[in-house]
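Readers of this paper often ask what the protein records in our data store actually look like. Such a record has a labelled line for the sequence and another for the backbone structure tokens. The tokens are whole numbers drawn from a learned vocabulary of local backbone shapes. We quote a single record here, exactly as it is kept in our systems:
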Amino acid sequence: MSKNLTKREEDYSKWYNELVVKADLAENSGVRGCMVIKPYGYAIWEKMQAELDRMFKETGHSNAYFPLFVPKSMFEAEEKNAEGFAKECAVVTHYRLKNDESRPGKLMVDPNAKLEEELIVRPTSEAIIWSTYKSWVQSYRDLPLLINQWANVVRWEMRTRLFLRTAEFLWQEGHTAHATKAEAIEESEKMMHVYADFAENFMAIPVIKGLKTESERFAGAEETYCIEALMQDGKALQAGTSHFLGQNFAEAFDVKFSNQEGKLEHVWGTSWGVSTRLMGALVMTHSDDNGLVLPPNLAPIQVVIVPIFRTDEEFAAISAVANDLAAQFKKLRITVKYDNRTTQKPGFKFAEWELKGVPVRIAIGPKDLENGTFEVARRDTLSKEIKPKEGIVDYISGLLEQIQTDLFNKALDFRNTHITEVNSFEEFKDVLENKTGFISAHWDGTPETEEKIKDLTKATIRCIPLDRVEEEGTCIFSGGKSAGRVLFAKAY
């Protein structure tokens, strides 16, 4: 099987696009800016979804589902949110087509089927959900209300890229209501930590936790918490956000509760979400010029067994051993595939599973049967070794854990060596163009300086790190006073 992937160093963007398609993750659809997620890609998303869903439920959240369409007047109720998403909204104006009599076989919008009120195809669900919460919340006994939904949303992006930015994408969005400000802030922080836990322990992606600047916050939020990751090309990727909404949406939709003293108060809200953009992060963090590299915790197939044979007798003998081995893996809940196709040669299979990022490959040939050994190959390092049959299952189980750890540490080392402190704008520009990565620099705290730096360099403030040292300094651009360093980077 010929991969023919563009080298990362030659054209990172082209390498990414080719890899997503050739590894059978996704492809462009017949709808501009939308994608088809193929079975192998969706299997990875399902594993992400399952782990996140478990984590949400362990923290007390329940799943629900809300409508795809939002009446325009309802969407406009929270002004900042409506303004923030206005340019990305898809709008339904009519509810029926009819035959175009001038063009047989063609359809046209029926002008008599115009909606009384236009419907927004949800770019996010705060409006429809908070309008529903009004009837769900009456008393302090109804709080906290901890709801999540798995859904699709539409944001009419003009420049799209598979998984990273599409007109329609899959995600989860949590929406919670609380009796106090402190509880809502605690919830926002908790969900940021849940996302960080998932990114690091399942995706093997180290992240930086922080706060967004005012200009980068979610529209309608008082504070946005985020996790930021660094891709292999030195660009940042926002991997998840959690928003403290204050009482903005509660006031917009009049969501009140009677407190323990019998007084009516507006509730305090949060929202938080991650999307199929995580698929892009997974590809870009670990993969190489040979294809995908998947962390075992999210790989749909953790171990693939490939037989090497010439005769039907050899194939039968190898299959007996391979099927027994596969059964042992399954008992340990290790996902395994015995690739017993007779239509493809071993070399083709090796290349295919390497391209698809299966963490461990076991090859079994006639000599292995004679010697009581297996050839074990790691996808992440492309190393091979001969291991005895005895104890092989326990060995592979430990190897999968080792690969998960090694992938995280490799990404962490890359991230840590690509955080650079600078003290002047000239240094800033030099690092941005020649080294890339996160740039730790002093900023005067004004949106004007933030915007000027963005206009001149295309770099944005990714976050104000939660663990930053509070120190007085001088802004690299304006020379004004700074309370501490923030992280800049070019980003997806």
Summary: The chain has a mean pLDDT of 97. The first strand starts at residue 26 and ends at 28. The radius of gyration is 26 Å.
